[in-house]
Amino acid sequence: MKRGTNFSTAKKDDQILNEKTDQQLIEEVRAGHRASFSELVKRHQRGLLRLSVRFMKDLDIAQDVVQEAFIKAYEKLNMFEGRASFKSWLYQITVNTARNKLRENRYNYLDIEDVQLSVPATAEKNLVHGAVSRMIQVEVDRLPFKQKTALVLRIYEDMSFAEIAEVMECPYDTAKANYRHALIKLKETFETQSELKKWTDDVGGIFMELNTHYAEAE
Amino acid sequence: MRQASSNKEHLLRLKLKKEDPVELPMDDKFYEGMHSKIMQAIDAIDIKPSTKWAKAHIFLERRSTLIKM
Lengths: 218, 69
Description:
The structure holds two protein chains of two kinds.
Chain A: H1 2-19, H2 22-30, H3 35-56, H4 59-75, H5 86-104, H6 115-118, H7 121-128, H8 132-142, H9 145-155, H10 161-168, H11 172-192, H12 194-202
Chain B: H1 2-18, H2 28-43, H3 54-68
């Protein structure tokens, strides 16, 4: 009976935490209520892991990045000013942590800027015969870090340019320009690879219609 | 013109998203384990107190991150 009561109380507590906004939970954490941070972790860990995997290419390392990001966020919670959303702030910390990790281990993992130099011609040729999705991923990984970040946040995280600007700590137009440059670079590569060119034709040739006005709309 | 451009961009995003090769674990237990690990690490640390230098610190940190990127 007592156990049942405890269970229903815990469930009720979870429900109350669920209904709170990130900002309310942050205030509670600041006031010393650590359990509220647990709810923030629950809310955002999947998104952060998804983002981190795209940069780190390894689930274990990506998990480490997410853990490090949450630790940094917790330690610096008093510095969170609330100008951006908590989600954007967390994503910003995760992107920076991933970036630093890639820099620290640039001889152990493939850094984004190094990929272009380190993929041998034969591997590239083999990739042409592989799945289109893998090929697209290879091309996305070859993009400079800022362009890749803008592209990943826009395409896979469905973020607006305003949110991307918050995560990348740059002006709105810069976020947009990075995204547009990423698309243009992909387009140029797709034009030279027959499999990818075929894919763009299959999806209605929309990639080839890319022009300077392409990413203008929000 | 702007609307057409927006629709095309939206379509392209959908197509690229469809080809996304990244697969994450679907198992709730995986995320429960991850959550526990994170909270264990959090239990061992404290929130840094806000100081009068906090704003300057944020500004300098932002600048250094922007330079690195």
